[in-house]
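pipeline/complex-builder :: batch 7 item 3
reading input block
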Amino acid sequence: MDETKRRALIIAMAKSMTDHAEELTALDQAIGDGDHGLNMKRGFDAVQADKDVIAGKALPDALKALGTTLVMKVGGASGPLYGTLAMALGKELSADPSRADLARALRSAIVAVKARGKSESGQKTMLDVLEPVAAALETGADPVAAADAAAEATVPMKAIRGRASFLGDRSIGHMDPGARSSALLVAAISKALDTTA
Amino acid sequence: MSGQNKREPNGNVGIVIVSHSPDVAKGTAEMVRQMVGEEVPLAFCGGNPDGGLGTSVEAILAAIDRAWSDAGVAILVDLGGAETNSEMAIEMQPEERAGKIVVCNAPIVEGAVIAATEASGGASLDTVRRTAEELSPA
């Protein structure tokens, strides 16, 4: 993967988080502490500001740098969670991964995110999107469609982890903000990879 | 005072308070100071990197530095993000420190006061944590 593509990926992710910051915050106000959109925007604004340095690195180091920036700048639990996801992907991926490599790396990264958040699938979190995306990458299905459907599928779930879990049954009926931000990032990444291919 | 034992204040476990709210963090630290005095290294932080509600890994790393003691550091947190960010900060510590820092599963205000009280008597990190965690609802 060349520098142009890495830069395009950063710009696409940051734009997506900026464009959807209000939507994510509204989702988080329903069942969380109401800051997810602003937090993600703050994190990706910092990534965007540093895009030349980050994109100048080979993919593994670029992901590590991106993850570290998210950890430092997001300011909520999603910072360590997305930061861990990026750093774990960086550890597993080569500089120019295939789709199969990406699927394998994502499986490892999911294990790392589970450990960081002390969470499992089915608890109304970003993991409920990441697992179906990994499955789609493995089977040749469309990861973007899988992510969107998976985010939608968090609506009837009852939250077990995070602030939403305090609400118990009242968390049912709302899409999980972390599932939505994950799906948005999957769409942004997928589109950027296609258009710069 | 100094005759009772030979411990320096820095020989006691340090306490770090991490809240989403800068005011809660500061207020909790004030309660600790008033009730426990100057016998324990104490630091607090609250707020996200923009100064709004939230927590910042960078600020937690700095607070751990300020409260550092060779006896270890016990961190008291409020909500989930404070815990996750504190765990991240612990993992980013140099190897010789990482095993000597714990996040207590305890209510932040009561936990900080009781942990500091225990620490001021020279208790080990394990004892400080256990005492604070006895406050947690089962």
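note: The interface with chain B takes residues 33, 35, 38-39, 42, 71-81, 83-84, 116-117, 161-163 of chain A (CB under 8 Å).
queue -> next item
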